[in-house]
Design brief:
The chain has one domain. Helix content is 32%, strand content 30%. The chain contains eight helices and 17 strands. It has a five-stranded antiparallel beta sheet with strand order 15-2-3-17-16. Strands 10-7-9-8-14 form a five-stranded antiparallel beta sheet, with helices on both faces. A four-stranded antiparallel beta sheet has the order 1-12-13-11. A hairpin with a 5-residue loop joins strand 5 and strand 6. The longest helix has 26 residues. The protein is globular. The two termini are 15 Å apart.
Length: 336
């Protein structure tokens, strides 16, 4: 199934006199009206003779095409406030207002989560020796989503992972901190047990023997073929409700809606709760980056047996900065 994202400017719609959104009839109407048009626009965007970068993540392949590839960057960043224009030798200052700074912060977060999805999909395949654990603090003294709160969590996490390793041997992990709307944090952890082909730990033991700071939820990942996308729903998206829409409107945000397993979510609505320069995730030393290949799309698709196959997901970006423009296209194929 081809993945389609829909972007709606609810703020303008709200101003036209709509007081509440009930049953999401408006979204369904737009999706049904424009579905065929969107499908025509995004189908077969990457040609077989296009030069691409391909990320190989053990059965999940991402093809990245750029309309223009600038191999020599025209500027050099000097520090956090200025940059050098190589052609003229001028030193210019960054001009960032509050709105632009906020937008750039969101872009940086999205890049971070994209890299996180690559790491997850390259290391976690939905095998029986993998677990997905949510760690939550109990009581009134819960850490906030702040540098101090993160420091406390990572100290507690080191004790937690050492206890697991003493009992179960080699374990590689990725842990990701997630903010609650009230400003407190909890964490999601992916665990791979290398000394086991099949692992089971009772949630009571995970909570009371290993974590000891509140509550846990422990589940396996069997049957989930795209764990990176699965976890992203926990970390960045918020289920589509009247309250969630209202929060986005107050923040002046556009609302991008996606549908997963019959439920609608506001894509990226949780990003506003992450503070700037916050270390969202950490990984153990045994977590491996995916291999990136370079070449022509058709040749690589033929090599892995997907030539002529429709992608499972396509996304296209149009970038415009002054007189410069570029097109970036992503195609995803899930062969797991």
């Amino acid at each position: 199934m081809l993945g389609i994202y829909l972007i709606c400017d609810f703020k303008d719609f709200w101003k036209k006199g709509v007081d509440k959104i009930r049953g999401m009839w408006y979204l369904d109407l737009i999706m049904s009206t424009y579905y065929n048009q969107i499908l025509r626009e995004v189908r077969d965007l990457i040609k077989d003779n296009s030069f691409v970068y391909v990320r190989d993540m053990h059965g999940i392949y991402e093809f990245q095409y750029m309309g223009k590839m600038n191999r020599d960057c025209p500027i050099q960043v000097l520090d956090g406030s200025s940059y050098l224009v190589k052609a003229t030798g001028e030193i210019k200052a960054f001009e960032i207002d509050e709105d632009v700074g906020r937008s750039n912060s969101y872009k940086s977060l999205r890049r971070t989560f994209r890299q996180l999805r690559y790491l997850i999909n390259n290391n976690f395949l939905g095998c029986k020796n993998e677990l997905f654990v949510t760690l939550t603090y109990g009581g009134k003294d819960r850490p906030l989503i702040s540098p101090e709160g993160a420091k406390r969590f990572y100290m507690d996490f080191q004790i937690y992972i050492k206890a697991l390793r003493r009992k179960h041997g080699r374990i590689e992990f990725i842990n990701v901190v997630e903010p609650h709307g009230d400003g407190h944090l909890h964490a999601h952890v992916l665990l791979k047990f290398f000394d086991y082909s099949d692992i089971f730990i009772k949630n009571d033991d995970m909570q009371n023997v290993y974590w000891k700071h509140g509550f846990t939820k422990t589940s396996n990942l069997v049957g989930i073929t795209n764990i990176g996308a699965y976890l992203s729903a926990y970390l960045t998206d918020v289920e589509l409700t009247d309250f969630a829409v209202n929060d986005c409107l107050k923040a002046g945000e556009k609302i991008e809606v996606k549908e997963v397993s019959g439920k609608k979510y506001i894509k990226g609505a949780r990003l506003k709760y992450y503070p700037k320069k916050f270390n969202i995730y950490r990984r153990s030393r045994g977590i491996i980056d995916p291999v990136v290949h370079k070449g022509f799309a058709g040749e690589f698709k033929k090599k892995i047996g997907i030539l002529g196959r429709e992608p499972d997901f396509i996304k296209k970006y149009e970038i415009k900065v002054n007189d410069f423009s570029n097109t970036i296209i992503y195609e995803h194929f899930n062969l797991r």
